[in-house]
Amino acid sequence: xxxNYIYKILFIVLMIVFQSCEKFLDESPKFQxxxxxxxxxxxxxxxxxxxxxxxxxxxxxxxxxxPNLAAKGGFSRTSSTFYKEANSSADYTSRNIWxxxxxxxxxxNIALLSIENLDVSKFPSEDEKNKLxxxxxxxxxxxxxxxxxxxxxxxxxxxxxxxxxxxxxxxxLNNEQxxxxxxxxxxxxxxxxxxxxxxxxPSVTSQFHVSKELAKVFKAKILMNRGKDGDYQTALxxxxxxxxxxxxxxxxxxDMGQFPEPFEYQGAMYxxxxxxxxxxxxxxxxxxxxxxxxxxxxxxxxxxxxxxSSGYAYYLITNASRSPSNNAALYTEALNILNExxxxxxxxxxxxxxxxxxxxxxxxxxxxxxxxxxxxxRHIDPVQKWAVYFFRYPELLLMQAELRLRTNPSxxxxxxxxxxxxxxxxxxxxxxxxxxxxxxxxxxxTHEEAMDIVFKxxxxxxxxxxxxxxxxxxxxxxxxxxxxxMLKPDIAVEEDKRCLAIPDVEMQANAAMTQNPxx
Length: 519
Known about the structure:
single chain; two-stranded antiparallel sheet; disordered N terminus
């Protein structure tokens, strides 16, 4: 009894300490299975909520997940397994994505149960209790939605049986045998959590925390991907509301900055752009500190920083050679989109040179990468900013443009207006004494042309950041087929393979689990 009491006191002290400094985002919930004893007041309730954020720092929830979605969509071949739709239940990457998301979901459920079981008198007010519950529910919805998008038939009819493996309690041996819920029930569960978050979360004050605005735009993304009757209009209403009411602290970047950063290797200069600085350069040089971020992952400056940020470093554009060509992994149409004149200088900022991520200096040579994500090797600069851009302001404008064109196809000018606003806000650059727009305006004469512009802008602006380009390749069509067919002309794209196989680790442990069709 005395030992348990000491553990309980130690837990509360640790949690309060973590609550009072920035490192709270780097701490997993301690003593998870004694939450009913450990969470005894408002401070410890806040601390256990903050601990849930640490799961966002998993390499599998971001750097080793989103680039695979880009490959699955046909934008790159950084993962041949995902590009070729060759995933199986034994796939190492899928297994780790599954495990880490469900660890995060379990942590969210622990936090939610601890708050629900704590009497309201322990909180400053009932509103404060609801606020903490909303924060956890939003995080749980975030994790569950990514599992839903990766492993369930999210596009199918409501009565389809291949929905989420939904868990809303503590994972124990007693509830390990759990069946999936239907696709329709999955949407109900996800939107219930998000709607609670919309009702009770405050407006954004920190890009490292979920907010009312994030809940609204994430609900809009879910509805936009589903695309059922009324979804596009509801999503547009949500996006319009966020654009109209968001605080000035969340907006497009206005400063000028240099990116990529130039460096010298064996007498040659790398990452030299045709201009000195740009607003997009400021965005990526500031990384997680840019005001364009609505929700972003950041990494503590500690000795575990490298291991939590390695994923993007290994999803490089080139192959293992030192060739300056970027054709080794970005193929055909996806590369052509980046090279289009309307893209101007954005490619020079998004892609660039960094060092091969090797612990051996002999193999640490420059490689051409997605510079906005990869940055320098962790062996070169272990404190460099490795952000995961979960949601940036430009995505709001991209969503607004798409939704306007889907709900009012005849008004092309109004539909493309958000795209041109995005491009105008990227400012100007000076090259050889001549100043010009960083990104020129775009225009179209037909609805199909306008939709192509929006689709390409999603890839150019958000590529490999948060999976948006993959879902766009399924939503948008060209020549009567989803864009994914154009991007992967050598692959027989099958509807069943939109979702990954349920990993063996789940199938073997859970007799009630059903495998996805096609595997």
